[in-house]
Amino acid sequence: MSVSSTFAASDGNEYEIQMGRWSRRLAEPFLDFTGTGDDEEVLDVGCGTGNLAFAIAQRAKVKSIKGIDFSEAYVENAKSLNHSPQITFEVGDATALPYADSSFDRVLSMLVLFFIPDAKKAILEMTRVARSGSTVAATLWDARGGMVMSRMFVDTAAVLDTRAHELRARAFTRPLGHPGDLGRAWRDAGLKDVKEVTLIIRMEFENFDDYWRPYMGGQGPYAEYVSRLKPDEQATLKHHLQRAYLDGEPDGYRSYAAVAEAVKGTKP
After folding, report:
1. What is the pLDDT of residues 120-179, one digit of tens each?
2. Which one of 49, 66, 206, 253 is most buried, by most CB atoms within 10 A?
3. Domains and CATH numbers, the chain
C-alpha cells in the first residue's frame, strides 16, 4: 500500500519518548477547542500511537473512534495500549481515506498535516468523510516561532553543518507551518465558521540526557538527521547542544514553552 508522509516512523516506543509524551499534553487544550460529544463517530487522522484517540475516549461516551496512520509500527503500538472496544486503529493514507462520504461526526488531526506532501488532498479527504454540520479540526506546532526545544536543537546544528541548515530551511518552510496557514487551508476546503486559536503547553525535561535522548531514537526528521551523522559529528553536536541546554546553570530540570496553531471548521 502506498502511503503519504515524510516523517521517519519505525518505532512506537521511541516515538513516545520523542513526541508522544508531548502530544498527550497537547491533546487536552486541543480538545477543549474542538469539543467532544457523546454518541459520536470520530476519526483521528494521523493517530500515531493513539494519544488523541485515548484522550477523546476519556472525555466522552463516543459510539466509536477510528484512528488511522501511515506507520504500521505506530498503529501496532496504539493497538497494544488500547483497552476500549470503541477504539480501533488501522494503517492507511490520509490522502486516500478508506471511508465512505459523510461517515463521521467529528474529524480531527494532530501534528501530522505538515508531514504529508499533499496536505491539501488530506484536508479535502478529512472534509469528505465528515458529515454535514460536523467539526473538522487540526493542530500543528508553530515550528519556526513557537518550539524552543526544537529551535535550540536545529539552530545549534545549523551553525555546525550545512546539511542541518538545509534541514532547518525545510522544517520552517513547510506548507501549513505558519500562523494563519491552517485557517486559509480550511476555508479553501469549503469549511464554514472557521476559527483559529493558539495553544501553549510546556515541555519539561529532567536533565540534558532526557532532552538529548529523543534525538537518538530515529523518529522524525531531526532524529533521522542525527542517525546519519558520523560518531565524531554526533559528539560535537551533543557537546554544543549541552552548552545551550545548561545555559549558565547546573544540569537538571528545564521547562520550555511549545506553541501550536489549531483550526476548526464546520462541514456545510
Report:
1. 999 999 999 999 999 999 999 999 999 999 999 999 999 999 999 999 999 899 889 889
2. 49
3. 12-266 (3.40.50.150)
- Of 219, 226, 220, give the one whose Cα is nearest residue 161: 226
CA distances from 130 to 1, 29, 66, 198, 268 (A): 24, 22, 13, 24, 10
C-alpha cell at 141: 506546532
Q: In whole angstroms, give the CA distance from residue 56 to residue 145.
A: 28
- In whole angstroms, what is the distance from residue 251 CA to residue 255 CA? 13
Pairing relationship of beta strands 87-91 and 41-45 according to DSSP bridges: unpaired
Tell me the mean pLDDT in the region 209-236: 93
Pairing assessment for the beta strands 104-110 and 64-69 based on DSSP bridges: unpaired
Cα Rg, the chain, nearest whole Å: 18
Phi, psi of 7 (to 5 degrees): -90, 125
3 pLDDT above the threshold of 60: no
- Joined together, the cell numbers standing for residue 208 give 540534558
